[in-house]
């Protein structure tokens, strides 16, 4: 997928970088503030904002909305890195610092939700890149998106590592009063040293758990996606216990473990990081991920069992038995479909 598929008719702005983007509707901006130093924003007017997920039968959702591409949270392992290559952008530092902003996302979503062809299905957000990354502090797309979903009583879920979600607490409460709203915060581990190097642009794990605490205090159920569990770095029984205990203390309604997977794009970047920070683990990773992007089933089952046992021990569970929660999970790294379409 290329820029011409993401963009609509010209909005009157001159080409930002036609050689790179092949489109005439990209506006490139930088902001000289400490928060955004080194980041380039590419503003586009998307043609559509709701995407159908490829292979949705394996996912707990079929439709997604993503107002951004690329993510300044800069997690080394991020599975979405590959998607930047579909835009002819770099999947390493480029993914962290070249952020595509669909500036018309709220108005487009409101229009699509009002279409007679839309049947009000669940929409998942934060499944490709984080919709509460730093850019959202400036572009403020999520308030308009949540307001549109609220006004159409359209069920939705959000997965995030961003504390910025609390800015929209009132809107989330309003939406939760009229439709099903599922929030999940991603906290794979609580080890601060690991966090600083492998998730350098994210709020600290304890700040993310504060988000869970605050949402719960305001009556909004919030689960934790314990992702990723990083082999040999965050999978020690004591580390798993510390994480699940902290998750339980935050008031999370569920904890769902997910072992690190290393698809192309993420694999190269993570392996380089591993070689720099933990060179003694490179061979072990080569063996563990010898079959491809996923750790062996036996390893995944072991982690899942350990986390479920700990969750039971610490009393984590749904507050409303019988009510299924939709836990947003990362979607498959496939080119963003353009016309069904939705993210
Ligand atoms: S917050 Fe999520 S989308 Fe952003 S870099 Fe980290 S894993 Fe990727």
TrEMBL record:
<feature type="region of interest" description="Disordered">
    <location>
        <begin position="319"/>
        <end position="343"/>
    </location>
</feature>
<keyword id="KW-0479">Metal-binding</keyword>
<dbReference type="Pfam" id="PF04055">
    <property type="entry name" value="Radical_SAM"/>
</dbReference>
<dbReference type="InterPro" id="IPR040086">
    <property type="entry name" value="MJ0683-like"/>
</dbReference>
<keyword id="KW-0408">Iron</keyword>
<protein>
    <submittedName>
        <fullName>Radical SAM protein</fullName>
    </submittedName>
</protein>
<dbReference type="GO" id="GO:0046872">
    <property type="term" value="F:metal ion binding"/>
</dbReference>
<dbReference type="GO" id="GO:0051536">
    <property type="term" value="F:iron-sulfur cluster binding"/>
</dbReference>
<keyword id="KW-0411">Iron-sulfur</keyword>
<feature type="domain" description="Radical SAM core">
    <location>
        <begin position="57"/>
        <end position="306"/>
    </location>
</feature>
<dbReference type="InterPro" id="IPR007197">
    <property type="entry name" value="rSAM"/>
</dbReference>
<dbReference type="GO" id="GO:0003824">
    <property type="term" value="F:catalytic activity"/>
</dbReference>
<feature type="region of interest" description="Disordered">
    <location>
        <begin position="1"/>
        <end position="22"/>
    </location>
</feature>
<dbReference type="InterPro" id="IPR058240">
    <property type="entry name" value="rSAM_sf"/>
</dbReference>
